[in-house]
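// run 5 | inverse folding | seed 20
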């Protein structure tokens, strides 16, 4: 197939503050929920502790030390030819106590330096305002987004950074993977305070209360919409997007029950939040879901108007995998730390059980563009794998290159059909801490970071084989894979 990537296509990579920066206690930063998460593995869940425990390793506290090494890292992204780089601002660097009267200048200065460094190389920053790191102070004082006060705190934070960086940053995202809040395991990312320490996902210690969770999610929608309106008033050229974790779903069989079930699950998990944020109102199936589950969402007097006014300019999403849906119990299931489904007999899975499905990306792009007709950006995609050095001291990560080639070809196919896809930021261009498991061993990068699961290592950066490969891809604008 011809190369269909537009001339100005935004090639790049994506990270998040809590998985990369480290420096958790530096320059006045306050603790965030991600600072309270321990390291796990594929079969050992990450724990969330309400206070920091001695003799416990919290990977976010050091992460890969991007806070001190950003210049070196950005120089390597520039060498690969990045046009865009997605990163997040740690809210707790700007408002360490959530409700401080003044923002923390040291935190503001740090991101200003980072954005200027990116601009030096003509790399557009794409900034996520909140990536799974609500300040602990806000969880403790206000129970996170369950309290409407947190809407104001977030909007104030957004206003502070959007004003400060209005000439440095054009692309913004409000909340990372907001639809994680639809899951019973999504309480933490909404800032809802658990009663006791427990697993980050699926904690039996802390039962889920859907009434509280969906109210918090509603408040988050309102905060997001207000931020969109505010952002446009600060700089009309801002492009502000939402961000959805898209877990593409297929019926396991052509049995009508499987097909219907797939549709219902897809709507409630993949489409609900995007519908609110892109169309500006609650979709019928969500209202029905609330009805059936006895959930009552309390709207503030202006919420309906705010949601309508604050629809996003672009729709962005993460895409890692697909799985199947079946009405039968007893079918074989996939692994996956957040949400799993029935195994697809036609797909292989990563070492962490995530089913690799490049065609599913084109399928998803058709689906989303047809639904929203907004510019789309894939802001996370990639393969988490164990990397080993060969005798020559090199990492020959052909498996990663193959994964990315297949997904880029799928993007090309969707572009060929006329989908308005404007950019691609693969996840973790430099190895970072895994969000799901807290491991270092689950690596996504073109750049290896010398650090292990226990926090040992020099933190030195080493190029993998895929580094030169991605450079070539960007240089040829997706032609030369
Ligand atoms: P890791 C679970 C499943 C799919 C995507 O995930 C997820 C999660 C939550 O971790 O989140 C996104 O590192 C998230 C990133 C995360 C990335 O996926 O578990 O936005 O923070 O690192 C990959 O392999």
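// decoded
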């Amino acid at each position: 197939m011809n190369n269909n990537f537009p001339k100005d296509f935004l090639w790049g990579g994506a990270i998040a503050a809590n998985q990369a920066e480290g420096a958790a206690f530096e320059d006045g930063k306050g603790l965030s929920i991600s600072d309270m998460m321990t390291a796990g593995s594929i079969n050992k869940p990450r724990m969330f502790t309400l206070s920091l425990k001695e003799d416990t390793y919290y990977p976010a506290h050091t992460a890969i030390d991007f806070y001190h090494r950003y210049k070196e890292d950005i120089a390597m992204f520039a060498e690969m030819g990045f046009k865009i780089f997605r990163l997040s601002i740690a809210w707790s660097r700007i408002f360490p106590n959530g409700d401080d009267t003044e923002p923390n200048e040291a935190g503001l200065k740090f991101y200003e330096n980072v954005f200027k460094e990116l601009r030096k190389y003509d790399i557009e920053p794409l900034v996520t305002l909140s990536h799974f790191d609500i300040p602990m102070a806000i969880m403790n004082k206000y129970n996170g987004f369950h309290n409407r006060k947190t809407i104001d705190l977030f909007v104030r934070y957004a206003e502070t950074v959007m004003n400060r960086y209005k000439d440095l940053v054009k692309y913004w995202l409000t909340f990372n993977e907001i639809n994680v809040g639809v899951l019973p395991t999504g309480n933490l990312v909404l800032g809802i305070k658990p009663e006791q320490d427990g697993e980050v996902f699926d904690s039996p210690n802390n039962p889920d209360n859907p009434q509280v969770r969906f109210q918090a999610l509603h408040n988050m929608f309102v905060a997001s919409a207000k931020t969109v309106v505010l952002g446009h008033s600060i700089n009309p050229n801002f492009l502000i997007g939402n961000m959805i974790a898209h877990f593409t779903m297929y019926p396991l069989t052509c049995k009508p029950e499987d097909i219907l079930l797939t549709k219902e699950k897809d709507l409630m998990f993949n489409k609900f939040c995007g519908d609110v944020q892109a169309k500006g109102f609650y979709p019928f199936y969500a209202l029905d879901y609330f009805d059936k589950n006895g959930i009552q969402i309390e709207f503030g007097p202006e919420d309906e108007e705010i949601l309508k006014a604050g629809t996003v300019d672009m729709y962005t999403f993460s895409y890692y995998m697909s799985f199947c849906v079946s009405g039968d119990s007893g079918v074989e299931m996939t692994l996956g730390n957040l949400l799993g489904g029935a195994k697809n007999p036609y797909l292989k899975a990563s070492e962490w059980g995530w089913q690799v499905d490049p065609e599913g990306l084109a399928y998803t792009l058709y689906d989303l563009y047809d639904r929203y007709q907004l510019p789309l950006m894939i802001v996370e995609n990639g393969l988490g794998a164990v990397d080993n050095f060969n005798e020559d001291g090199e990492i020959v990560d052909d498996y990663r290159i193959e994964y990315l080639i297949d997904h880029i070809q799928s993007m090309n196919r969707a572009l060929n059909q006329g989908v308005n896809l404007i950019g691609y930021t693969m996840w973790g261009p430099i190895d970072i801490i895994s969000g799901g498991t807290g491991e270092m061993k689950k690596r996504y990068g073109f750049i290896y970071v010398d650090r292990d699961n226990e926090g040992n290592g020099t933190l030195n950066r080493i190029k993998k084989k895929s580094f030169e490969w991605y450079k070539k891809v960007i240089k040829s604008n997706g032609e030369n894979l």
